[in-house]
Amino acid sequence: MSEMLEKARKYEEEQGKQIKAEDRPAFHVSPYVGWMNDPNGFSYYQGEYHLFYQYYPYDTHWNSMHWGHVVSKDLLHWEFLPAALAPDEEYDKVGCFSGSAIELDDGRQLLMYTAVDHETLEDGSKRDIQTQAVAVGDGRDYVKYEKNPVLTEKNLPEGASKVDFRDPKIWKGKDGNFYCVIGSRPADGSGQILLYRSENGFDWEFVSILAENKKRFGKMWECPDFFELDGKHILLTSPQDMLPEGLEYHNGNGTLCIIGEMDKDTYTLKEQFAQSVDYGIDFYAMQTVKAPDGRRIMIGWMQNWDTLAHRDNDSKWFAQMSLPRELSVKNGRLYQTPIKELDALRKNRVEYNDVVIDNDTITLDRVEGRTIDMELVIRPEDKENMYKKFGLRFAKNEKFYTELSFRPDESVLKIDRKFSGTERALVHQRRCLVNGDANELKLRVILDRFSAEIFINDGEQVMSVVIFTEQEAKGISFFADGAAKIDVVKYDLI
Ligand code: FRU
Questions:
Q1: Is the per-residue pLDDT at 489 higher than 80?
Q2: What is the pLDDT of residue 314?
Q3: Helix (H/G/I), strand (E/B), else coil: 13
Q4: Which of 60, 124, 313, 483 is 20 to 30 Å from the Cα of 460, by its Cα?
Q5: Is 235 within 8 Å of 213 (Cβ atoms)?
Q6: How many helices (H) does the chain have, and how many strands (E)?
Q7: Where is the Glycosyl hydrolase family 32 C-terminal domain (predicted)?
Q8: Is 114's C-beta closer than 6 angstroms to any atom of ligand 1?
Q9: Is residue 203 within 8 Å of residue 152, measured between CB atoms?
Q10: ipTM for the assembly
Q11: Cα–Cα distance between 477 and 66 in angstroms, integer?
Q12: Average predicted confidence (pLDDT) for the chain
């Protein structure tokens, strides 16, 4: 093991154990200590889910990238393992950027990642160059391959940049070969997704340009993932520099899902539909795993480069992952639902039916908390007389709250954390155009201390935000402008 990795492992163990469990999210992944960004290597290996993450243990700000590592049997209780990779080789000395993991035919685990190095230009200035490298291990300790890097500028199609060539996502094809998709920047400065193939995970060949951005959805496409789901081919990617279209793509670093069909002769994706993956403030760089039971499960970084909100200067960790979400395709759209494992955490069920809120603000006995799972159905009291606005305030006390509000006439759901006490957050609101019937809005709200995830109409759309409101702010209230009628089912999760 390199000195650099040994140092990181020692440091995280000493520092990580000083962070109290109650000062972290209860069931969302947070870094051992320090900074975390993208989920990497989300995989199932030897009976456990493995999740790696972009990691800098020594500070709560981005710096030279390591890979942190956690494992779990149920995707909710995570155990820290020692850091898996450090930028300790000549070819990755700037950082071990994002990538993925898979089990090799011989039972070892392969990590494939972007190795970032410097190149000195004629004028003496330096720029990063990106190649792909691999490491193999036993689920805990990894050895970088002696012939790294395994994909370099030589493997790029004409015109593609060696500066932006990153984030390999690997899978095993039905033909027994390994495949990976990688984000790339073509000559037009836009983004494209490259497809590569390998028989053994070490020797790779270029197959095709799977998908091209052509400057439609932002510029460089980061962190691609590609898989079959419910008879469709799905490309997930996180484009930089997006422009909003209506209420889609409101984060400059956006999330994009393209649903289509892959042409098996040309290995190109024929697009049928495109949408945001998440409509909230804090979500980026999602990656999926195929669970042993066949479910496609996605996890994302519950932060975003455009909206980064640090908690406070004393916190020893920064950022968390989203709740793992099961994906499906319905009515041509991507649906996300909280993984079913969450049901096992539910306790203290409280239920209310047909509660009428008529130009009023109410609270409901035992409906409160910061680690909860709450299902709501909101209807007009009288169908002929639609309410104007319905609202929910949570993480609430005299001083703070976060508000979710729905205007049925516009079918717009808004999240607003302006009064959440989240310091230095520059972005407070996001609005989502809800596709379903405004006469019956279904929400599932999952809170875990520092975050809220809102699943709309059985997961047709999702909004994710982080909130750093003091934990004593546990209250929940409901209000309506006009007369609304609601059903509430609420559980505690710890
Ligand atoms: C996305 C990203 C990736 C890159 C990593 C570096 O958030 O920019 O493209 O590999 O973060 O930490």
A1: yes
A2: 82
A3: helix
A4: 483
A5: no
A6: 1, 31
A7: 341-487
A8: yes
A9: no
A10: 0.98
A11: 42
A12: 96
- Average pLDDT over every residue of 91-98: 98
Amino acid, single-letter form, for residue 296: R
Given ligand 1 and candidates 59, 111, 166, 318, which is best to mutate, with the most ligand atoms within 8 Å of its CB? 166
Q: Rounded CA gap, 238 and 432, in Å?
A: 19
Give the residue, out of 161, 163, 223, with the most ligand 1 atoms within 8 A of its beta carbon, to mutate for a pocket test: 223
Q: How far apart are CA 230 and CA 411, in angstroms?
A: 28
Residue 281: which pLDDT band, with cuts at 50, 70 and 90? Answer: very high
Q: What is the pLDDT of residues 422-448, one digit of tens each?
A: 877 779 999 999 998 999 999 999 999
Q: How far is the CA of 367 from the centre of ligand 1 (A)?
A: 39
Q: What order of strands is seen across the sheet that includes strand 333-338?
A: 284-290, 296-301, 325-330, 333-338
The string of DSSP codes covering 279-313 is -SSS-EEEEEEE-TTS-EEEEEES--TTT-----T
Give the pLDDT band of residue 55 (cuts 50, 70, 90): very high
Side chain identity at residue 160, one-letter code:
A
Q: Is the pLDDT of residue 34 over 90?
A: yes
In whole angstroms, give the CA distance from residue 43 to residue 134: 15
* CA 150/CA 132 separation, integer angstroms: 6
Kindly tell me if the per-residue pLDDT of 309 is higher than 90. Answer: no
Domains observed in the chain: 3-342 (2.115.10.20), 347-492 (2.60.120.560)
Q: d(Cα 8, Cα 215) in Å, to the nearest integer?
A: 40
Instruction: Say yes or no to pLDDT of 247 above 80.
Output: yes
Catalytic positions, written as ranges: 38
Closest Cα partner for 294 from 329, 253, 337, 326?
A: 326
Q: Which residue has the tokens 């996502």?
A: 169
End-to-end CA gap in the chain: 38
Which atom from ligand 1 is nearest to the alpha carbon of 54? 12
Q: Is the pLDDT of residue 84 over 80?
A: yes
Residues forming beta bridges with residue 444, ordered by sequence position = 375, 455
